[in-house]
Amino acid sequence: MSTSSQTHRSQVPRRRRRQRLLGFGLLALLGGGLLASCQSPPQTGATPVRIGFSAWPGWIPWQVTEEKGLFKAAGVPVTLQWFDGYLDSINALNAGQLDCNSQTLNDTISSIAGGADLKVVLTNDNSSGNDQIIVAKGITSVADLKGKKVAAEEGTVDHYLLLLGLKKAGLTAKDIEFVPLETGAAAAAFVAERVDAVGVFAPFTTQALKRPGSTTLFSSKEFPGAISDHLVCRTEFVEKNPEAVQKVVNAWFATLNEIKEQPGASLKILAQRAGVSEAEYKEYDSGTTIFTLEQNRQALKPGNTMASLPFAAEDISGFLQEAGLAQTPPDISALFDARFVEAAAK
Question: Which is nearest to 143 in space by CA: 176, 192, 97?
Answer without folding.
Answer: 176
